[in-house]
Design brief:
The complex is a heterodimer of chains A (about 525) and B (about 450).
Chain A lengths: L35 H4 L35 H12 L22 H7 L2 H4 L11 H18 L3 E3 L5 H18 L6 E5 L5 H8 L3 E5 L9 H7 L4 E7 L11 H10 L3 E5 L19 E3 L20 E3 L11 E5 L2 E5 L22 H37 L16 E3 L11 H10 L6 E2 L9 E3 L7 H20 L4 H4 L12 H6 L12 H4 L1
Parallel strand pairs in A: 2-3, 2-4, 4-5, 5-6
Antiparallel strand pairs in A: 1-7, 6-7, 8-9, 10-12, 11-12
Helix pairs in contact in A: 3-10, 5-10, 6-7, 8-9, 10-12
Chain B lengths: L7 H11 L29 H12 L23 H7 L2 H4 L11 H18 L3 E2 L6 H16 L3 E4 L5 H10 L6 E4 L18 E7 L11 H9 L3 E6 L18 E5 L15 E5 L12 E5 L5 E5 L6 H4 L12 H38 L4 E3 L7 E6 L3 H10 L6 E2 H4 L9 E5 L6 H14 L1
Parallel strand pairs in B: 2-3, 2-4, 4-5, 5-6
Antiparallel strand pairs in B: 1-7, 6-7, 8-9, 10-11, 11-13, 12-13
């Protein structure tokens, strides 16, 4: 079977017997749904647009002559199409979604309601600033919370997601080096880092130098020190790290990094473990992005939109990108151009057309106001407690790569305990689907063989976790001692689809619908 | 706390099960001196009602587009979005799911992404589109980087009709490893000679269609000139409704089309979240950034969809990836694809004609005001006005009269005397005849 670079099988595996023998292919509430292009029609529409009066056109002769080929559906058909599609998705609201490093916490609907207030949702990024003072004030309020929670000096809100935030932080670092006339070209990245870290560094033209993790899953200040040198611009370190551990030597790492004239970029994807418990700014970091779609509960939406504000130390603050807001008496002003920068600010440029993800800012601030200082701190403690509770519930059956010790908000297992069972991490994860759970993050971090990274978040109740633990214990025992491994090898059997052939998808890419080819014979 | 299910009893029981005496024992790796007590500078938890009041007060300090005659565009457009779109995107199964890494239980997301990709390819006249980027500006900057990879050259030629903020994002994202930008001067009338700037070092030519000033031109000669020198043509569309009426860039030789998809399905949101569209030719697909949904079969042979060609992406390739993009604009892409499904060919064409008609009527009406010239000969739903005096002040005074009349060019390109009397004005289906009259009347008064 083909493997991808993580050693994860990509073929469909064995099918076993199908239990879906219905005329329609539907199974009760689970409906087969054709593609829009098979169901819709060019003459159908679900929007009654008034027929425009005949006017002269001023299109310079560039009117579209060809058919676009876009099928439409009426409103009832549209509702049914998308409702049926939605029913083929797993969701936080439907069950436990323990994806490590993704922080799938509850998405409060008040946040949605607030983002849709016309005063936030229906304002244009370029309408006169005096007509959007409340919006800029909201951005200021959010910034204030982020600075207080992180203990940092400045924040830029415009990055559109975590990876975009990494870019923003690293661009500040690059600008700070350039301002000192230094041309450093290496970035240190631990092996356990998210893929976005090395990708970001490389995107900016840096060489990436890996730092190995210690046997306990953390990074040693000694190892960092050994890798530092006059060519090193920065280290990109995730803390808490992707093994679910707080880096115990983080303060010492910051010290040696600064001593070598480099900067400390912290990937804040796991900030949810430490909100209100410790301020990253007091640990010596220089830049950190915060995924509002993780820690501050803006919905993941099936892959975005996210938002990745970056907090900055005093050393990097002057280089924060455009736009940013300044207060003048009772009013706020957005600074949108380099020429307008004052007070020693040297923005490195612009990251996006407008001001960032306002819709996410409203949701995140709603979360912060709702939770308050006490609730945010409690949320982090509960997230950490829940992860440790899962660890305690499974530690006798599943193996932990770095020994049995407390974790932060996610707990990491490897596949050593599956040795000689014939069951892989992937099989185990897919069997969870049949039991009604979304699998944990698999095969990440890469430093651990057959990794299973479980992040329950603070949103799960004890009852829910007890059921989750009981289910995983049952599956673990079946994997180890059961005679029939088909529940793993054939899993999932009860999902809308069985395992999908990823190899075929990549070898014969079909990335869009095309009309079926009508053969001559069939046409006759 | 309404969002936290654990009770104090639960917490005590769980700590006991874990085998620690207190929660802080789980934070033992945090240097003890750095552990926080309270957060005295932040308020404590609030109920829904209090939060609504607090945010309501902030919202009330803004002027919503829907509350006034509104003609602001320049990269974000106010269109009517059917009620069913916002209802559907708030379904839990779409709103609260993650990137579809487990395809067996994410077929809903994967199928709509496949449909979205197809709609974007059709609309732009290209072979293939990805599953979305952050917005039009970052999509365009990524297109420039892709062109550098494809051509192994490092110079991008940018039209003076490209949105200045897009140009700034390209400057930020493509200024490493010797890459450089040759940007033409602002081109309000669409009269620049960009072909003359293409040479043997050019990796791509970036042209906005319609331009930020609203003007439209045939891209075919630019594509031909670019191809003759081995360069790519990147066409940028910030108002996708235009493609319901205009010849698509794919029919004029574009190699990559990037677009801001906000106009379809998505609100103004003060600039985000929006949805970047990215389309290209089949032969370039492996150099494309971003996620792609593809068709395959499952173990029983049933059609299904997966994320594919992920060997281009950061989670597999790390420092060798085509981009660092991870989270993109899934839910905004969903809003786009639902709205586009509701429109269909018929609705989109009609909507585009309606927009054009509104803009032509507005241009004619404003052109009659003394001291105002419409300087854009051919346009879709946005054009440039030259006014007597300082355009920024005119817009400011119009706002005082309750009309949001457009974007002064000086807001986008400050410090250029020859551009200081220009205003970008957009009209869409939301504008009534009364709005148009109100604009003309107010403009007459402030000039």
């Amino acid at each position: 079977m083909a493997m991808n670079m993580q050693g994860r099988p990509t073929g469909p595996g064995s099918a076993g017997k199908s239990d879906t023998d219905t005329f329609t292919g539907n199974r009760g509430l689970d409906h087969e749904e054709p593609l829009l292009f098979e169901a819709g029609g060019l003459d159908k529409t679900g929007v009654d647009v008034p027929d425009p009066k005949t006017v002269k056109t001023r299109l310079g002769g560039l009117e579209r002559k060809s058919e676009i080929g876009l099928p439409g559906l009426t409103e009832p058909e549209t509702m049914r199409h998308y409702v049926r599609l939605s029913q083929r998705n797993y969701a936080i609201d439907a069950g436990v979604y323990p994806l490590g490093s993704c922080t799938m916490k509850h998405n409060a609907r008040l946040n949605e309601k607030m983002a849709r207030l016309p005063g936030f949702g229906d304002i244009h990024p370029l309408q006169p600033q005096k007509t959007v003072q409340g919006a800029i004030a909201l951005m200021e309020a959010l910034s204030g919370y982020l600075l207080e929670l992180t203990g940092m000096k400045a924040v830029t809100l415009s990055p559109k997601a975590g990876a975009h935030g990494e870019l923003a932080g690293m661009l500040c670092i690059k600008a700070a080096h350039e301002a000192k006339g230094s041309k450093r070209n290496i970035v240190l990245v631990p092996d356990s880092a998210h893929g976005t870290n090395p990708a970001t560094a490389a995107f900016m033209g840096y060489s990436v130098k890996p730092i190995p993790a210690r046997e306990d899953g953390t990074v040693a200040a000694e190892a960092v020190k050994a890798a530092l040198g006059p060519e090193v611009a920065a280290i990109m370190l995730t803390n808490p790290n992707t093994c679910g551990l707080f880096e115990p030597e983080v303060v010492e790492i910051a010290r040696v990094v600064h001593e070598a004239g480099a900067y400390f970029y912290c990937d804040g994807a796991n900030f949810n473990a430490i909100v209100g418990k410790v301020r990253p700014g007091e640990l010596g970091i220089d830049a950190m992005h915060i995924n509002l779609h993780k820690t501050f509960s803006t919905p993941h939406g099936g892959g975005g939109p996210g938002s990745g504000p970056v907090v900055l130390s005093e050393a990097l603050a002057p280089f924060a990108p455009l736009p940013y807001s300044v207060r003048q008496g009772d009013t706020f002003r957005l600074v949108e151009h380099v020429d307008e920068a004052r007070d020693g600010r040297k923005p490195f440029g612009r990251l996006t057309a407008f001001h960032g993800q306002m819709g996410m800012f409203v949701r995140a601030l709603t979360y912060m106001l709702s939770h308050g200082s006490d609730g945010m701190r409690q949320a982090s403690e509960d997230a950490v407690l829940n992860a440790n509770y899962v660890r305690a519930g499974l530690r006798d059956l599943m193996s932990q790569p770095f020994g049995d010790k407390p974790c932060m908000h996610e707990v990491l297992f490897d596949d050593a305990w599956l040795k000689d069972t014939g069951v892989t991490t992937l099989d185990f994860a897919k069997a969870m689907i049949d039991e009604g759970y979304h699998p944990m993050t698999m095969y990440f971090p890469l430093v651990v063989h057959g990794a299973m990274l479980i992040e329950p978040t603070e949103s799960e109740s004890k009852q829910s976790l007890d059921q989750f633990i009981a289910t995983l214990r049952f599956l673990a025992k079946e994997a180890k001692h059961g005679n029939d491994k088909s529940r793993f090898k054939e899993a999932p059997r009860l999902a809308p689809r069985r395992r999908l052939d990823e190899t075929k998808a990549a070898r014969e890419p079909r990335l869009r619908w095309r009309p079926p080819v009508v053969t001559k014979e069939a046409a006759e | 706390m309404r969002y936290l299910p654990l009770t104090d009893t639960d917490r005590q029981d769980m700590l006991a099960k874990v085998g620690v005496g207190s929660i802080n024992e789980l934070f033992a790796d945090v240097p003890a001196a750095k552990l926080l007590g309270e957060l005295p500078n932040l308020p404590r938890a609030k109920g829904e009602l209090e939060v609504e009041r607090e945010l309501g007060r902030l919202a009330a300090r803004n002027t919503p587009a829907g509350s006034v005659p509104f003609f602001v565009g320049a990269g974000a457009y106010r269109h009517h979005v059917p009620a069913s779109v916002d209802h559907l995107i708030q379904r839990s199964e779409f709103l609260t799911s993650y990137t579809p890494y487990q395809p067996e239980i994410s077929q809903g997301t994967l199928q709509y992404l496949f449909e979205f990709q197809t709609q974007v390819a059709l609309l732009t006249g290209m072979d293939v589109a990805n599953a979305s980027m952050y917005d039009g500006s970052t999509a365009t900057a990524e297109a420039v980087l892709m062109a550098h990879r494809v051509t192994r050259r490092k110079k991008a030629v940018l039209s003076g009709g490209l949105h200045p903020h897009y140009r700034a994002v390209i400057d930020t994202l493509s200024s490493y490893g010797g890459a450089r930008v040759d940007a033409l001067d602002a081109d309000p009338k669409g009269a620049e000679d960009i072909v003359a700037r293409i040479d043997g070092e050019t990796s791509c030519v970036v042209v906005q269609y319609p331009s930020v000033f609203g003007s439209i031109r045939d891209l075919t000669p630019i594509a031909e000139a670019a191809h003759a020198k081995g360069a790519l043509l990147i066409a940028v569309v910030t108002e996708v409704v235009a493609l319901g009426l205009l010849k698509p860039p794919g029919e004029m030789g574009a190699d990559i089309v990037t677009a801001e998809g906000q106009s379809i399905g998505n609100g103004l949101n003060f600039g985000g979240p929006y949805v970047g569209l990215f389309a290209t030719r089949d032969k370039l697909v492996r150099q494309m950034p971003g996620r792609l949904a593809g068709e395959t079969v499952d173990a029983e042979g049933k059609r299904g969809f997966v994320l594919t060609l992920s060997t281009r992406e950061q989670h597999i390739r790390r420092e060798k990836a085509t981009s660092n993009i991870c989270t993109n604009s899934g839910l905004c892409a969903l809003a786009f694809t639902i709205h586009m499904t509701l429109l269909g060919e018929k609705g989109l064409r009609r909507l585009a004609r309606l927009n054009h008609g509104k803009a032509v009527a507005l241009a004619e009406q404003l052109g009659t005001v003394d001291g105002v010239d419409v300087i854009t000969p051919a346009f879709f739903n946005e054009f440039t006005l030259r006014v007597r005096g300082d355009a920024a002040k005119v817009i400011d005074k119009l706002a005082d009269k309750g009309v949001l009349g457009g974007v002064p060019v000086s807001r986008l390109i400050p410090g250029k005397a020859q551009l200081s009397d220009l205003i970008l004005v957009a009209a869409t289906e939301i504008n009534t005849d009364d709005d148009r009259m109100a604009y003309a009347k107010a403009l007459k008064e402030v000039l």
